[in-house]
Amino acid sequence: MPRSFLVKKHFNASKKPNYSELDTHTVIISPYLYESYPMPVIPKPEILTSGAYSPITVWTSSAAPFHSPLPSGLSPLTGYSSSLGRVSPPPSSDTSSKDHSGSESPISDEEERLQPKLSDPHAIEAEKFQCNLCNKTYSTFSGLAKHKQLHCDAQSRKSFSCKYCDKEYVSLGALKMHIRTHTLPCVCKICGKAFSRPWLLQGHIRTHTGEKPFSCPHCNRAFADRSNLRAHLQTHSDVKKYQCKNCSKTFSRMSLLHKHEESGCCVAH
DNA sequence: CTGGGGATGGGGCCC
DNA sequence: AGGGCCCCATCCCCA
Question: Which class for A100: exposed (0-12), middle (13-18), buried (19 or more C-beta within 10 A)?
Answer without folding.
Answer: middle
